[in-house]
């Protein structure tokens, strides 16, 4: 478990009243999130909730032909294992680590007991579920209606928020899978953003060089989702930006 005097870096845990967090601490165990690890497969059993303190996890929907599309992203603003919050232990989507990091883990039974004992914990987790629903909703709307350059700018902002640095590992192949488009389209869209001086991409490394410009290039979907996080959970629990 994390040391008693250690500040938690997960937004949901940090949003809890101090006494509720201290009551929860003995149930939390620090774990690593290695790059490309599958935390649970699609239609798999969810055994624990993970509160990331760094890194990024993608939630992937798998189609009949094997194609995968990203439907959600989680960083230190949220949690992995949302079905357990609602008393289920199966996940429709796969959870895969896309940026390595760390998390605090709590088992299913311990989470259930903690939620039964704490109205504050129930409130925070339920409000996160609403905020995450807003993120998924805006992702669907964005993918259906907005230009690829706007969608790419939005996705890079989300990744930048969770990376904790202006430069991070990223490939066009990976982005194409996340956005559900072909790689040449991602290359063209990235070229437009790079020519505008908003990003720099070299050998699998992405750098955000003009954050305000990238925000201006993105559609409203990014800002709507951030506002919902702030409204439901407070600015301290919103995705780090």
TrEMBL record:
InterPro entries: cNMP-bd_dom, cNMP-bd_dom_sf, Env_Response_Regulators, HTH_CRP, RmlC-like_jellyroll, WH-like_DNA-bd_sf, WH_DNA-bd_sf. Residues 12-130 form the Cyclic nucleotide-binding domain. One of its GO terms (cellular component) is cytosol. Signal peptide: none annotated. GO terms for molecular function: DNA binding; DNA-binding transcription factor activity. Pfam families: cNMP_binding, HTH_Crp_2. SUPFAM superfamilies: cAMP-binding domain-like, Winged helix' DNA-binding domain. The keyword DNA-binding applies. It comes from the Bacteria. Keywords: DNA-binding, Transcription, Transcription regulation. CDD domains: CAP_ED. This is cAMP-binding proteins - catabolite gene activator and regulatory subunit of cAMP-dependent protein kinases. It comes from uncultured Acetobacteraceae bacterium.
């Amino acid at each position: 478990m994390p040391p008693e005097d250690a500040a938690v870096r997960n937004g949901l845990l940090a949003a809890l009243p101090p006494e509720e967090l201290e009551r929860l601490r003995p149930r939390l165990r620090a774990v690593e999130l290695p790059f490309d690890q599958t935390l649970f497969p699609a239609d798999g059993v969810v055994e624990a909730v993970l509160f990331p303190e760094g890194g990024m996890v993608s939630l992937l929907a798998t189609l009949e032909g094997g194609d995968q599309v990203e439907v959600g992203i989680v960083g230190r603003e949220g949690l992995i294992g949302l079905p357990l919050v609602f008393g289920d232990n199966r996940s429709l989507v796969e959870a895969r680590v896309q940026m390595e990091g760390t998390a605090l883990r709590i088992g299913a039974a311990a989470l259930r007991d903690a939620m039964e004992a704490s109205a504050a914990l129930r409130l925070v987790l339920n409000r996160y579920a609403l905020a995450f629903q807003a993120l998924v909703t805006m992702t669907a709307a964005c993918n259906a209606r907005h230009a690829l350059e706007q969608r790419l700018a939005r996705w890079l902002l989300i990744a930048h928020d969770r990376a904790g640095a202006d430069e991070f590992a990223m490939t066009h192949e990976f982005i194409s899978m996340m956005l559900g488009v072909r790689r040449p389209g991602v290359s063209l869209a990235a070229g437009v953003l790079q020519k505008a001086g908003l990003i720099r991409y070299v050998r699998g490394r992405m750098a955000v060089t003009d954050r305000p410009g990238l925000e201006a290039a993105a559609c409203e979907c990014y800002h709507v989702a951030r506002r919902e996080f702030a409204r439901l959970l407070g600015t301290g629990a919103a995705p780090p930006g």
